[in-house]
Structures are given as C-alpha cells and as structure tokens.
Amino acid sequence: MSLPLFILALLCTGTFAQTVYRKIENYKVYYGWARNYPQDWMILRCFDNEGRNYLLMVNPQTLETKINESSFYQIKPMTVGQAREFFKSTPYQKALSKAEKQSVNIQDAGIESGIPKQTGISLTADLCPSHRPLDKRIFTDIFTEFKKVERPVPIALSITGIWMRQHPQDLAWLKQMQANREIYITWINHSFNHRVSLKAPLKENFLLEPGTDISYEVLETEQAMLRNGLLPSVFFRFPGLVSDQQLVYRITGFGLIPVGTDAWLAKGQQPQNGSIVLIHGNGNEPVGVNDFIKLLQSKTRSIAGKQWLLYDLRESVDEEFSEAP
C-alpha cells in the first residue's frame, strides 16, 4: 500500500477506533459547558489518564458523545441543574425530561420508540452476564442483509461490566466488525453486575435489590468500557427493564437517558415503524434472535429498495425530540 493510501486508510478508520484508557484515575461525574468553536458540548464526566485530564461530553443536539483532553476547550463548570437549564431546549435534555415523565412504571420506563414516520426500527441487543458465547448470527445476518444499502449497519448494544470481563474474545470480534465498517455500535450502559433473583419480587429485584450501589453500577461500567476501547453513550438500559421513579431519577442524575422497548421480540411484541426492538445477544434468548432473523428475511425486498432500514438509536431519539416543542 502506498503512503498516501495508507494515510487515507487511517483517516477512514479513525472515527471507528476508540482510544483505550488503561490507567484511569479520579473518574467522576462532572457537569459543565465546554466549547471548541463552533460546537458547544455538555460535560458529563472527567478523569485523568497517564498525566492528562479528559472530558466525556455529549453534543446536546445530536446525542453524540466524545472524549477529549480538557485543555482543548473553554470550560464553565456547572451543577447538574444549571447544565440542564442551560441546554433545556436541546433534544438531549428533552429526552431526559420525557424519560423522567415516564418513570412511574416498574417495568419499561424511559424512551420506548423513535419517531413513527421512520420506515424501519432501531435494533438494540442486550449483553447480560452469560456463560454462553455471543450469538453472532445477529451481526452477520444484519450485515449480509444491509451491506448493499446501509453500511456500516447501526446497532445499539447494552453491555454489562461482567459480560466484558467474561467475553474478551467476543468483544474483540465485535470491535473488529466495527473497525471493518460492517456495523456501527452505540454502547449502552446496562449496569456492571446485572444482579437478578429468581425469587425476589420486582420491587426488590435487579437494581432495586436492597444495598445496590448505583454509582458503582453506572460509573464502573463506563470505566470498563473505556479500558476496553468503547465509547460510552448517553443511554442506559435497566436490567430486566425494572426500575422505580427514584431509580429513574438517579440514572438521569448521571446524565443518562433510560431506554426501554416497545418490541421485545421473545415476548411476542411486534415491532412497528420507529420501534426500539429488544433482543438478547448473549446466547440466552435464541427465540428472540430467531424471530429477528425471520423479520429480516420478511423484509428482504423492502431492504433492497431502501424501504425498511435500521436506524441509529441516537438519531432516532435526536430526531424525535428535535421536532418536540
């Protein structure tokens, strides 16, 4: 490969390669405004790594997240209340507010769908702790179906800290698919431990289990992502889709948007245009994966004609709330 082509290849893959932060220190919630002309960002976290200070930020218009050195920005520290007020007219803040308004239900609180006019769905796959290997059919099949009309194919993966620890080879395989521009992954925080009891009632189960350290479940997962070269998004999915109002506000207090689903395929829920579809990619739910593959096969002609597509979760939520008053 000639030098100019080699440089071009690096530039093309750069946006898909996330830095690995191996020596994270002083990782904490930190709110504020950051500006690097012409873009304003909302700061969510700050941390040190190998002697440099970094910020995890969100573009409140597009919901895109980014990590960069703090020295590159003009910064104004804020409380969470001040930051939300400052950015209150943005899609990001509108999505947070809607999630809080839908916080009463003990199951499936948060954003459940994108905009209905979309001819397609946003696909989310959960990677809960499991001894089974990654169900790779999901990823190979969506790439095969969409490669001629949509590449990379967007998918959102809800990932747990335990799954990252137990499945390094599967994680490397996913990262390679992204590096090859076959898929584009939005990484959703799904808690670190994802504890579950087969006997406890929902109000005392999953993250509602007494004694659960919510800060650890959120922030330790983010740090595990960063150590593995993953870019945290502004989305959070409750384990078991179980929460209460207090827990929802705890999560939005971290600047994270709870994401539910209106189409959990393994439970027989049928997706509509704009649906946020849920399947499990951890090998524990072959029924849901089989249903999704059948759905793909039924849409082959529509996919070829660009009449049925997979949508980036960030764009689905962004567009919905860009249109909201």
UniProtKB/TrEMBL annotation:
GO biological process: carbohydrate metabolic process
Gene3D superfamilies per the UniProt record, alphabetical: Glycoside hydrolase/deacetylase (3.20.20.370)
Name assigned to this protein: Polysaccharide deacetylase
Organism: Mucilaginibacter rubeus
